[in-house]
Structures are given as C-alpha cells and as structure tokens.
Amino acid sequence: MAWxxxxxxxxxxxxxxxxxxIDLIGNTPLVRLKRISELEGITGVLTMKMETTxxxxxxxxxxxxxxxxxxxxxxxxxxxxxxxxxxxxxxGVGLAIVAAQRGxxxxxxxxxxxAPEKVSLLRAYGAEVVVCPVAVAPDDPTSYxxxxxxxxxxxxxxxxxxxxxxxxxxxxxxxxxxxxxRQTGGRITHFVAGAGTCGSITGTARYLREMNPSIxxxxxxxxxxxxxxxxxxxxxxxxxxEDFFPAAWDASLYDEIxxxxxxxxxxxxRRVSREEGILIGGSGGMAVAAAIQVAKSAAPDxxxxxxxxxxxxxxxxxxxxDGWMANFGFLRECxxxxxxxxxxxxxxxxxxxxxxxxxxxxxxxxxxxxxxxxLVVCKNTPPFANAEVSGAVDELDLMDAxxxxxxxxxxxxxxxxxxxxxxxxxxxxVELAVEMLDSAPALLVxxxxxxxxxxxxxxxxxxxQAVVDDG
Length: 471
Ligand SMILES: Cc1ncc(COP(=O)(O)O)c(C=O)c1O
Known about the structure:
The chain is α/β, with parallel strands linked by helices. It folds into three domains: 29-54 and 175-315, Rossmann fold (3-Layer(aba) Sandwich); 61-154, 3-Layer(aba) Sandwich (Rossmann fold); 333-469, CBS-domain (Roll), CATH 3.10.580. Helix content is 35%, strand content 17%. The chain has helices at residues 34-40, 61-73, 90-102, 116-124, 144-154, 167-183, 199-211, 262-276, 282-296, 322-327, 338-343, 360-370, 395-404, 430-436, 457-469, and strands spanning 30-32, 45-50, 82-85, 105-111, 128-132, 190-194, 216-222, 256-260, 303-308, 353-354, 374-379, 388-394, 423-425, 442-447, 450-456. The protein has a six-stranded mixed beta sheet, with helices on both faces. A three-stranded parallel beta sheet has the order 3-4-5, sandwiched between helices. A hairpin with an 8-residue loop joins strand 11 (374-379) and strand 12. Helix 2 (61-73) packs across helix 6 (167-183) and helix 8 packs across helix 9. The N and C termini lie far apart (71 Å). Pyridoxal-5'-phosphate binds next to helix 7.
C-alpha cells in the first residue's frame, strides 16, 4: 500500500513509507482459520480479523485515535493538553501511542490489583501512571474513580471515557466495517465479536447493516455478564462482558448473543494458538468459540468473520500458564487427583454456603445439620455460575466471637467471617492438597473456575486410607 501518497510531505509520495505510526492503525488483515475449520467440519469460510497487527497490538488503537481526533475538533483537547483515563488495558496503550505522536501527556489511573507489567507497559510509552488502592470504597478520596476525577479537574484534562464516548463506535463504523466489506468483496454473511464497551460490535454492525441488511451480527459474551442475561459477575475473561449497559449497547443490531464460559474461552484461546499458530487472548478465544458454533450451521458459501481484539502475549501468566489454569480447575494435571478424592466421598458433595447477610445463628444451624466445621460465604447462589465467594466462617472463629459477645449470634455473618479459603483445582495433584492443608483447615475446590466443594483434612485422610486399604 502506498502510504506515502497521502502524506503532506511530498518526499513520501510514491513510497510505501507511513507518515507516522498513526497511519498504521487499522487495515488489519483477515485470515482464514483453516485448520480449525477442517477439524470442526466447517464447510463455510471461517475467518479472523487480526487486530493484533495494530501498532498497540489491539483493536483499541482505533477508538483511541478517533476519541482524540474528536476531542481536538470539539476543542476539548488543546495543544500540549493532558488526557486522564482510568484504564490499565489496551485503551491506555492506544491513547499513549496517539498522545506521543500528537504531543499530549497521558495520565492513567489504575488499582494496585493490576499486574506490574501493565504499569510498566504504559510507562514505557511515556505515560504517567497513578496506582490507587483497590481495597477502598468507591467514594473514598483515594479510590480509583475519585483520583481520576480529581486529576481531570486539577489538570484541566480531557477524559475520553470510552464507555460513553460516541467516537468509540464511530471509529469502527468508519474503519472496521468498511475494511471487512472490502476485504470480503461484500460477501461477509456473519460478524461475531465480543462486547465490552460495545464500540467494536455496534460500530462495525451499523456499517455492515447499511451495506447489507441481512448480515447476521452475533455477540459473544462471558457467562455471567448482563449482555447475555447474567448479573454482571463473576467471570475471569478480561475486557469483555459488563455489569451495566454502556452507551454503545444497541440490542436492535444483534441477532444473537452467545454466552461462553471462562473454561471454553481459555481452552479455545490455547487451541487457536496451537492449531493455527495465532496467539490470541481469552476474549479472542471466547469470540472464536461462538464463531465455531455459528460457522457449523452456516452454508458453504457463507463468510463468517470473527473479531480478535488482542494477543495472547498479555495473558502468558494466566491463560497460557498451566499452573494458573489448573488452580481454577480448567486443566487436569493427573488422573488420580483432587477430583478423584472428592468422588471417593460418594456423589459430589454439594457446596455448603451462607450468604453474607445471613445471621451467625443460621450459619451455626447449617454447620450442625451437616456436621461440618466451616462454611463458604458467597453471594449470588445458586447456581454457581454466579457464585461470588467473599469469605469463610470456621467453628473456632465463631465460638471465639460469641464467647466474647453473645449478641454476635444475630448479626450478619460477614461481620465475623474470615478470609476466603485457599483454592485448589479439581485436576490438581493430591500432593498439593496435602501440602496446602498443612497451613489451612480446608480448601475450596474449583471446577471450570467455579466453586464446587470444600475439602478438609478429614477428606484427605479418608481418601488416603482407602487407597492404602485397596492396596
Ligand atoms: C481484550 C478485549 N477484548 C474485547 C474488548 C471489547 O471491545 P469493545 O470495548 O469495543 O466492546 C475489549 C475492550 O476493552 C478488550 O480489551
């Protein structure tokens, strides 16, 4: 492509030299997922829009550029101005790239829960990063929201707010949609994408529907997110799904919303990386899993496009780490593992829990009825697709608390609960359970990322005894 032809600098005319890195945003390639199609028996064309080839490595370069250009046009961002955004992810990288090129200062506000590499990445682009404590209430002056608000005010800064900014979907309307139309020669029949701010899916869908009203638009969504009817949490896949409906959400555009579990999202990301040689993240895995379902029922002439927002490089310590995957019960390390130990107790024992607002008295009654010495405290139960563990109560702690203050009996359990139990995956080794139970009274067993059961020292003893007796 003759990038130089569009440049104001006549020396670039007739060359393939891009005028600046900004000109390299967009025009990402479309590649067929050939091996996966063969293995899945897909007869139509399944193809991926590779947003990893944007300069910042993600789809977010597009809205970052458009939001800054719109702010310049609207006089919200003046030469040498400052951009403040609470973000730790891809949008920050996109904003930092455009800011570097156009002479703005970026300040990103994030919580201390964010991985140190993410802080380093944004600082590497020259951005200022302000880290706030995660463990404070949203209206605390040191909270992430309040600090972003204060800095915006003090620095007279521009706040892009991708969740409400119309330039976000507009960027995909202006670029992603037309690219897909051109790249498929107008033959695209299905567009599948994950939704977070909904900028990608909505902007692209608006353009494609104008070109061909019968194109099918399919949103992929994490199980638990509000877009597919959940409560908004909890799920592990990053960047997609929400607990509210952002400004760009437009249900009239989406033909179908397919909910995909964390387990399927992560295993699909690993599979695409291994089988296609394309390293993608968890949200890309989620979108591909939905696209495989769509493509399996598509006609041979159909062209199904799946939108891959970013690379697996940002998730090497999670999705691509076997230990991390096993701890959530996404991978099995062995046959005779924690799952076998649970099975030896008979049918899989149900997870006993109390809600944080239930009384200590109720917790004690439950412990006595089931003959257990600890209970998990969790919200949104059942089903456990929505379980959100907040802590645990132990008989020793309760005894101690009631002894000191008998009124505790009728107070909510979350006043006296202890920290969450350490977790172990259903596919992890029994040796690990033994080691962990050295310092904890019980473990919370996870399967597919969700709480399954509590395992105690007695369970391990009974299992080991049975193994020895069976010879
Ligand atoms: C990794 C990843 N995937 C998907 C998305 C969703 O895209 P959008 O916000 O345009 O809906 C995001 C958004 O932040 C993301 O970071």
